[in-house]
Design a protein that fits this description.
It is built from 12 helices and 13 strands. By secondary structure, it is of the alpha/beta class. The strands form 3 sheets. Strands 2-1-10-11-12-13 form a 6-stranded mixed beta sheet. Strands 5-4-7-8 form a 4-stranded antiparallel beta sheet. The C terminus is likely disordered.
Amino acid sequence: MTYLCRRAVLLTLLSSAAFAAPPPTPRRMSVLVVPMDKGAESQQVKLETYMLETLSEYQGLTVKPTEELFGNPPDEDSAASLKRAETGFKESREAFEARNYEDAERKLRATVKEFTKAASALKTCGHLCDAVAMYAAVLQARGDVEEAKIAILDLQALGPTFELDRKKYPQEFISLRATVATSRNAQLRGNVNLKTKPNGARVYLDGEFMGYTPIKLETLPIGKHILRVERPGFKQWGTVVEVSPEETPITQELTATPGYKAYDSVLDKLAGEALKEKGGGTMASLAKTLGIDRSLVGVLKEINDSGGTELVLGLYDLKNGTRLAVKKANFQGDEYGQLKSELGRMVNQLMTAAEGGGEKVSKSADPLDNRSGQEDWNAEDKGGNRTTKDKKKKGGDPLDRMNGTEDW
């Protein structure tokens, strides 16, 4: 066999082997933050969310959000109520369009009630706004104008931009809505003070993300609003809250999933391993149970009453417990939205440090990183090339090494 023939056969075999080999498996990664106190608990989901967003920008990773790890199941009762509400909505609309207002009022009242029970399943106002609008129009048609005005206020709160179909609604009702929209009652506002157990849950008001619990929702138009809460590892919860000029306090205990209960039982062990140079059996068990290979494992604790927190964050190969990189940082709240960028930079530093394989304690290139801004202003400047030999230089600056506050 000639050289060229042998070379062709070899290339064919190599090509076949390459096609037969399974594709490389992307590294499965996630973020696990262990809160050490109630203050840290309220920050947990926010920090995990920000870090997961940074990881999602890396190619070659399969990033698993915490909802996927522990579940975030819907409320079965709410789902059942939504199904009944949609059925009632169709029947109510048929009665309304047939001008059978007595039957429509009865059906719409029941339909709105079912929609109210389905709050955790409502992403937007949707058919609830349609039902409230028809209900208000029916009340006016039957002579109950004051009740119709209250229903219109609810409609204004639920869907400020909801438009009435002029072919469907009489002109008298369209005029009444315009009158209510400019009335004194429509200008009233109220607050909702929401807490959950545990805190740190995402809050959605009328379908719009508002922040994390505990949270105070201020200057809301009076009337009905859809309030929905989600926290990874817990069943979704929601309610239709009636906002009044008085503050409305709400405290809701969330229901944990079985997976999160099991995870919660090993949090102390996970925190202990995360603070060591090498992980242990807890990390290996989580890798198998959660289906992840690597994780950013953080230990978070509150350090002051003004919302300051300390985070020790390590990048671990969970299966063998190897710590690839570690970093410690303090954060002072998120008043100006700076927390997301600070965490993103921290994650990027850990990922870069881990590329070498072994553990590296990453150091930021930012001269202000890990500094609180309250360091001793009289501390000696150690920058530049100055050494102690400068003292012996002739002709040096007589004010060198003077801070201007010496005794005159």
